[in-house]
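Hey, resending since the last one bounced:
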Amino acid sequence: MEREDKKSQFEQPAKRSPLPLVAVVICLVIVAGLAYAYIGGGSSDGRQSAKVVSADQGRVSIPLAQVSDGKAHFFTIRSDGTDVRFFVVKSNDGVVRAAFDTCDVCYRYNQGYRQEGDFMVCNACNMRFRSDQVNEVKGGCNPAPLERTIVGSNLVIAVADIGQGAWYFKGN
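The structure tokens again:
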């Protein structure tokens, strides 16, 4: 008996495997990622969801009150059989700006832009552009400018101007 007591003094308790805990953590991460994508993390291609707009008398009219919060608002309209995406953002200098949701360089990837603070960021190449430069700087990977005017309390974009950028989205 004394020998058994001595032996038990030096025996280590059986170690538990960390595998069940690791499996639970992995499952939680997967569920959180799926919930983020489903609830509002944007679409699977990195793009934000876009509100479908229609034209009236050759113009798209968007109430300024809907786009004056400093956040980029994404829209889509059908032009010559092509869904054309664009965004509107009120930059930190107080100007409401509009651009196609693409650029001259990365349009083939069909990934558009996302907003990070005062910057619009290309989802294809991750280049960042100050929102107060939208409509000011064009070419390269800058958001492709879209003409717009303010009429009363609305931002107005001519369907003809939208149609000029439809080529960016053909085949995408």
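The radius of gyration is 26 Å.

Sorry for the duplicate.
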